[in-house]
Amino acid sequence: MKIAMVFPGYGSQYVGMAKDLYDHYRVVQEHFEEAANCLNENFVKLCFASSDAELGRMQNAYVALMLVGAATFQVLKEEGIEPDAVAGYNQGILTACHAAGGMSFPDGLYLRSKYAAIYSEELKSMDAQLACLTGLENGDVEALCDRARTDEGGPFVAIYYEDTVHYISGSNDAMARLRELVEQMPGVELSAAPPELGMHSSLMNGVYNVSKMYMEKVDCKILQIPLLCGTYVGIDTVSSCETVKACVAGHIKEPIYWTRIVRALEPYDLIIEIGPGTTLSKQLKQVYPDKKIVAVNERADIEVLKELVGTTTPQERDDG
Asked: What CATH number does the domain containing 215 carry?
């Protein structure tokens, strides 16, 4: 049985996430303690007793998602459930990189915290916005953006999320031109999306340049588990330190081709979403209705996985 694990990004956070795991697994408590020491933040209060608005702030959500994903992955690892490949949607790529052995948990928190600070500061003066476009396939979306583009402000396809669901970034003027075109297209809708998802275009060049300097300071290691990383040329399996850094940094200013990663998951028998939430697993179940797909948010989800795969290693599964 081939196993892939996917890590969600911004928007999957919710108050109470990982509470059941925290109550039952010491390793989860240790991750919360380590994160608190690294960032001087009470993550127990933030994740379990704050508000949706407070947890949803970029500076909070980004690191909290990294914390929950890393802690949940470690629980599965201790239970003998390990993947043959990992992937991360949007900000989840950094958690996937950590899970694959590419960087330490403190380094991942450090990078995620720095990126949130840089991007949130940039947003204060950024004349841009993000929106979700539904009803058109890739080629038509790209052509539509080309029609609306008159300068360097876009609009740009920021995230290829589903075949007919795309996130578009652009300057306020560019997005106004895009809306005018969409209003003339029956069955096509354009709705506001949270900028915390990221603009993922040349609009992020400033954020990329500063963030890249912090990325260079991180002690990156050769991955022990292949990382699926969508790029503009297709799907790459990343393993070396240089390509890991390029993939993680490139996610800031390059489009996210999540649809390509979804297609690359086709060979895997079991896909595990490493919480919080069920956003990715619901999407994947629509694409692969016959596959085993499990989202891990509570201890009961882990028991389901143990029934499915037992506690064997990837090599033992292949031998069997």
From this structure: 3.40.366.10
Give percent of the chain with pLDDT exceeding 90: 82
More confident residue, 228 or 132: 132
Do 210 and 187 lie in a common domain?
no
- Which amino acid appears at position 162 of this protein? E
Please give the pLDDT value at position 212.
86
275-291 pLDDT, tens digit each = 899 999 999 999 999 99
Residue 23 has pLDDT above 80, yes or no: yes
C-alpha 115, offset from chain centre: 14
Residue pair 112/63 in contact (Cβ under 8 Å)? The answer is yes
User: pTM for this structure?
Assistant: 0.92
Last residue of a domain, one of 197, 224, 252: 197
d(CA 115, CA 277): 23
Asked whether 166 and 136 are in contact (CB, 8 A), the reply is yes
Structural domain containing residue 36: 3-122+204-313
Q: Which residues contact 316 (CB under 8 A, 6 or more apart)?
A: none
- Apex CA 99: angle with CA 94 and CA 104, to 5°? 75
Instruction: State the total domains in the chain.
Output: 2
* Alpha-carbon separation of residue 110 from 3, 32, 113, 197, 236 (angstroms): 29, 15, 5, 19, 26
